[in-house]
Structures are given as structure tokens and as C-alpha cells.
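job 3f2a | input accepted
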Amino acid sequence: MLQSIDGKITGSFLHKTSAISATNAYYELHRAYNADGFACGRITMNESFTKGYYPNLSKYEETKSTEDFIAGTGFTYFAVAIDRYGKLGWQDCCIHDEDPGYDNAHIIEIVSEQVDRRFLTYLRSIGVSYILAGDGEHLEIERALEKLKRYFGINKLLLEGGSIVNGWFEREDLIDEISIVIAPTIATSDDASIFYNSKSLDLSHVETRTFENGIVALRYKR
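job 3f2a | predicted structure (222 res):
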């Protein structure tokens, strides 16, 4: 995650020059992990990739299948969207981004049993994979991760926000490592913290790196 000195991950501080420089360090570390994919919540995915687009679901019939959908076997890098109720509007089966750490990642939607079945038909029509995990209010994150490994061979997954999704993983003891890039700036009180509604987790320091312009990267492990 990229955060301010006071532990916030959202807000106007992200548009400051200091935070933009920190973002470059963040992308560098993202690529260096050489992970099998990355995971984000609905809000983060919308802000970064879907940009508010949503399909007209009246064009689609409800799918009769109650099974997970795996679009293909030729993908090697993945973008996991944690989207309980199916609110993200994708227009292709893969991410298209100028950063090679995100470009061409095959999209996998993690949805609940309460998702609109027309949304699932829409995902199938554009070749987006999806996994059903949980009754709606509470996603079964561990179950979803097991499926990601079984279906797609995902062993190393980067969790990249937002605050609510980070909190889900932390409370379920599903975080092995924390990597934080700190921008040399302070956010406002209204901005979201790195973990929403977290419990307690002890970690061991692994590495501290410094970058130009006062940027620091910290790495911890369980």
C-alpha cells in the first residue's frame, strides 16, 4: 500500500507532488514482487480501471448456472476484483494499463450468492472469470483464495486496497506480509486508514528502503 505519514491511503494528499513521486516507488515495488496477480476492492477497481462504467443488464438473461466460471486457461497474470454485489462494469476480459505491472491481467470477479444473475451472464459474455464465495454481507475470503489457487494457480497475490478489503483480510489472518510506501505528507482526518476495523497483528521487520524526495518503504512479515 501507499500511505501518508499518518497511515491514510485515500484523499487529496495523493495528488501532491510528494505522493506522486511515492506512487512511482510503489509501482516499482509492485513489479519487483513478481506476483501472480493483484486484488482490489470495488471502489479501488472503479477509480483505477472501470471509471464508473456499468452495463445495461436488461440486455442479459439470468444465468441458470450456480457454478464458478473460468473463462480460459491461457492467462498467466490476474486482476482479482472483490465485488460482492456485482457493481463493476468491465469492457474486456483483461486490464489495459500503461504500467506493465497491471497491463494484460485477466480479470476475476469475486462475488456473493446475492449477485444479480444477469451480471454473471454479462461477465460470461465478455470473458471475465468469476468466483462465488459467500452469502453477500460476508464474503468467504479464504474460500475464494483457495479457489484462486485451484483454478488459476495463484500462489502470490498482492492485496492493494482499499481500507475495507484490507480489513477483511487482516481480520481473517490472511495476510503474510505487509509492504508500505510512505509519502512524506500528512492527510486529513476524513481520509481512510490502511485497515478498516482491524484487530491485532504482530509482525517482524524485514527491510527498510529509502527513495528520493523523502520517500520510505517498509516491509514486514508475519
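job 3f2a | Residues 1-34+175-222 form one domain.
job 3f2a | closed
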